[in-house]
Design goal:
Elements lengths: L11 H19 L3 H22 L14 H25 L5 H28 L4 H12 L4 H10 L1 H26 L1
């Protein structure tokens, strides 16, 4: 270690560069890679709802012969994986934050987890009383309940088209949003 490392910068331009470097380093530590925030959800929607569309297409057609349980299982597994990735990325990025912001972030994360578990537990009790195509629609519509515009477009289009709208517009849109957010970083 050199004693020069502890000395203040010699001129105002060097001090400004030091401040900018430190600000950039802090932003890199606190701002997670946008791809890690958006893309797991985009992949979950694209693949999960894509399977719904292939299995439960309009006019009761199967574009791809799959067991009826597979699309929901894959969607649910991918959503759980995306949630875990989101939790890990958020914890790494914001774990250094303290105070009110940290508390609000923890509450927000817990609300998502508790809300999802509660909704899916309730759907598990309801969906057994519905035909497969309607049960799939209820599960998928609930999974994207926070994106009301996509939900409304899918319901208007019907059960078969709903999955395609969510897969392409939802999943694809999230993937594009992640790429744009990363570019802005």
């Amino acid at each position: 270690m050199h004693l020069d490392d502890d000395l203040p910068p010699a001129d105002a331009a060097a001090a400004l560069r030091l401040i900018q470097d430190q600000r950039s380093a802090t932003a890199r530590r606190l701002d997670p890679d946008a791809r890690l925030v958006y893309w797991p959800w985009g992949v979950a929607w694209l693949v999960g709802f894509g399977l719904f569309f292939l299995r439960f297409s309009p006019d009761d057609r199967e574009l791809l012969r799959l067991p009826s349980w597979l699309p929901l299982t894959v969607l649910f597994a991918l959503l759980v994986a995306a949630g875990v990735i989101q939790a890990v990325v958020s914890t790494r990025a914001y774990g250094q934050v303290i105070g009110d912001s940290a508390q609000r972030g923890r509450w927000y994360g817990c609300t998502w987890a508790l809300g999802s578990v509660s909704i899916y537990a309730g759907l598990g009790r309801i969906s057994e009383h519905l035909p497969d195509d309607l049960a799939g629609l209820v599960w998928s519509a609930t999974a994207v309940g926070l994106t009301g515009a996509l939900h409304m477009a899918g319901v208007i289009a019907g059960p078969g088209w709903h999955a395609l709208v969510i897969a392409v517009a939802g999943g694809g849109g999230i993937l594009v949003a992640g790429a744009i957010a990363r570019r802005r970083q």
